[in-house]
Amino acid sequence: MNNLGIMQGRLSSIVNNKIQSFPERSWTSEFSKIHKLKIRNLEWTLDYKNFYKNPLIDVNQHKKIFNLKKKYKIRINSVTCDCMMQKPFWKIKNNKKLLSDFKKIIISCSKLNLKYLVVPLVDNGRLETKKEENYFVSKMHELTPFIKNNKVEVIFESDYKPERLQKFVKRFDSKAFGINYDTGNSAALNYDIDEEFKLYGRFIKNIHIKDRLKLGNTVRLGKGNTNFKKLLKNIKKIKYKKKLILQTARSHNGNHVKEIEANILFLKEKNIIWKKNKQYLLLDLQKELVLA
User: Fold this and answer.
1) What are the φ and ψ backbone dihedral angles of 272, each rounded to 5 degrees?
2) pTM score, two decimals?
């Protein structure tokens, strides 16, 4: 599946009741599982727990990552920085170490050829005041030359209303910053996809595919409030050719591979993906080729 990817940890056991976390004990074995599912993209996850031991940060483990990518033909194009949501520097006064760690992430991503750093401005990382937002923006402006020099881009996942998010993202250099669009989070907030893509579609550089109930939890694709027909229509409008990352609900019985297979089947049945020449292609509603 050329453009379809999966969030790291979705094929491993849940740890400490967290729906998403870096799979410390099984991260290497996930590569073979992803390969068997014919998925070709992985999005890395980075927590603050054991931050410096994470293979993304620990340069001594970079060779292992490269070898696994090559062996299983897996691309890693993005990393979700949950660590920044767990310890957001924009909410902590003594934040020099946190800012230094953010630079470490940028350097590591550059060395590993990861292009996008997803910064979650949601939950504990939410920008709650204008003062907080202005401080965050000023720090990102200071870091812009460093980000560009390392040839990476920082993309924000936010729960701002569409108009506010448009104004927010316009405060940044579009060559170094953008938006990570999360289908489930927008569905839970009952935002209109047409309005979202009209206002800031051109800034979207990565998409998380999931389904959520209105004001509720993540559920299997097709069981929630996400409007997949509108999603594909708008993907076509902006000629989106980047990654779609499965960040779907976890299995209730522990069979995480079967859960991912069920979600892939849903995408196929809705003509969102179909199989041709041993590759999965994304289609629009009229079955015209959109992404290859």
Assistant:
1) -80, -35
2) 0.92
